[in-house]
Design brief:
Helix 6 packs antiparallel against helix 7, helix 7 runs parallel beside helix 10 and helix 8 runs parallel beside helix 9. The protein folds into 4 domains: 88 residues, Beta-Lactamase; 107 residues, Beta-Lactamase; 68 residues; 145 residues, 2-Layer Sandwich (Heat Shock Protein 90), CATH 3.30.565. The protein starts with a strand and ends with a strand. The longest helix has 32 residues. A hairpin with a 5-residue loop joins strand 10 and strand 11. The chain is an alpha+beta fold. It has a 6-stranded antiparallel sheet with strand order 7-6-11-10-9-8.
Length: 432
């Protein structure tokens, strides 16, 4: 198969138009036209293009039955979503598991990775400041350093060869790095750009350590697409969209969807964990009102509260001006409020209140659940700690991430609780 297949992804990530080759690939991946894009690599490019508002093109390998397909995918955003052009369509046998694993290790070596298009413009970069660098030429992103001889990287780039351990500086931050890179080819064997890795200049590149540090990224890539498809199909079966179904089978579909959504929270937690544990995390310093953000968090979770027969009481919210990263504060509040709802008995209230004392503004979320023993007050903020198996899903990372983000903003998250008398979690941030 050769030539281009056109398609369109709407703003909700659904493949709403597709020429036959692309439609068949969507079906092979377990979904139909009008459902979310089922090929993870294509879905990721569509999301990236829409988020950045830029044309993104990349060589990808997609599974099609027992074989692999080498594809060249171009995603171009517009007011309706993203226009897709998919070419290449070179079919080849699947690799053995060991070869697949070694190839994955090679691609994920390094502290973070980067990629260019055929014109040597950066199309993807794993650095924390990466979004500002996408679209720039490789030479504007990195300054290559002469080690006392001619720059081998320039010859490699000109000849489209691999290179390794090239000293460089990330121009935007001044970080000293060592770069490695490998040329990419599209389905027709044509040069398609470079994929490379960046290592901190002072850190040795241990293959074993690379696999461990890259694990959250690899896990998210491997699981996100299949989990999304499981959730979609479970909802379709449970909703009896394909016709009548026995009641117990519909219940099984609901259980499958619930389990898949739990795994999604675990994957999300691992990806977020890697991000917040970076030494260079720098939250923004916005002027915010904790009361307004608390009301927004309550609105987001009001339907869930109603399903659990719990009332969210915001009557005690008073203006509390503070300095913090608005998006991160909202993330913390949704996490704390979600925890409170998880443990609040039916027929009770979860209460939000604000206050300003000295140089700190605070928002407290109180529930009437089972409470937490004093000796466990600090344990709840440790990674992967869940004190009870009841109360629904959770990764055991939410409170750890919430406290780490709060402390990065100059604040904290604290707990006050007595068994059988509920719990009060308080977010503290610098007052404005």
């Amino acid at each position: 198969m050769s030539g281009l297949a056109q398609g369109r992804v709407d703003r909700q990530g659904r493949l709403v138009e597709a020429e036959p080759p692309l439609a068949r690939l969507q079906e092979s991946a377990g979904a139909r036209l009008g459902q979310p894009v089922a090929v993870p690599q294509i879905a990721m490019l569509a999301r990236l293009s829409q988020r950045l508002g830029l044309l993104v093109s990349r060589c990808v390998v997609a599974a099609d039955g027992a074989d692999n397909l080498d594809l060249w995918v171009e995603a171009k955003p517009d007011h309706e979503g993203v226009k897709l052009s998919v070419g290449g369509w070179v079919r080849r046998p699947n690799q053995t598991a060991s070869s697949e694993f070694l190839d994955d290790v090679a691609r994920t070596r390094g502290d973070w990775h980067w990629e260019t298009d055929v014109a040597m413009r950066v199309s993807a970069i794993g650095h924390a400041q990466g979004e500002a660098l996408v679209g720039q030429s490789l030479a504007r992103v990195f300054r290559f350093i002469d080690d006392g001889v001619d720059l081998p990287v320039l010859d490699a780039l000109a000849a489209r060869r691999s290179f390794d351990a090239q000293p460089a500086v990330l121009r935007q931050t001044g970080e000293a790095l060592r770069l490695s890179g490998q040329p990419l080819v599209d389905g027709g064997g044509r040069f398609a750009g470079y994929r490379g890795q960046a290592f901190g200049a002072d850190e040795p590149a241990s293959a074993k350590d690379d696999v461990i540090t890259a694990f959250p990224d690899r896990l998210e890539r491997a699981m996100r697409g299949p989990l999304d498809r499981i959730i979609d199909q479970a909802a379709l079966i449970g909703g009896k969209g394909e016709g009548p179904l026995r009641h117990d089978y519909a219940d099984y579909a609901g259980d499958i969807g619930t389990a898949a959504r739990h795994l999604v929270t675990v994957v999300d937690g691992l990806a977020e964990l890697k991000e917040v544990e970076r030494d260079d995390v720098r939250p923004r310093s916005d002027r915010i009102d904790l009361a307004g953000l608390g009301a927004r968090a309550a609105a987001l979770l009001r339907v869930r509260a109603a399903e659990q027969q719990v009332r969210i009481d915001v009557a005690s919210l008073r203006p509390a001006l503070a300095i913090g990263d608005e998006g991160r504060v909202m993330q913390i509040l949704v996490n704390l409020l979600g925890n409170a709802l998880r443990h609040a008995p039916a027929g009770t209230d979860v209460t939000l209140s604000t206050a300003v004392a000295g140089d700190r503004a605070r928002l407290t979320i109180s529930d009437m659940g089972a409470g937490i023993a004093r000796e466990d007050h600090e344990r709840v903020f440790e990674k992967f700690i869940r004190l009870t198996s009841s109360g629904g899903s959770g990764s055991g990372l939410g409170l750890y991430i919430a406290r780490r983000l709060a402390r990065a903003m100059g604040g904290d998250v604290t707990v006050s609780s007595t068994p059988d008398q509920g719990a009060q979690f308080t977010l503290l941030v610098p007052a404005a």
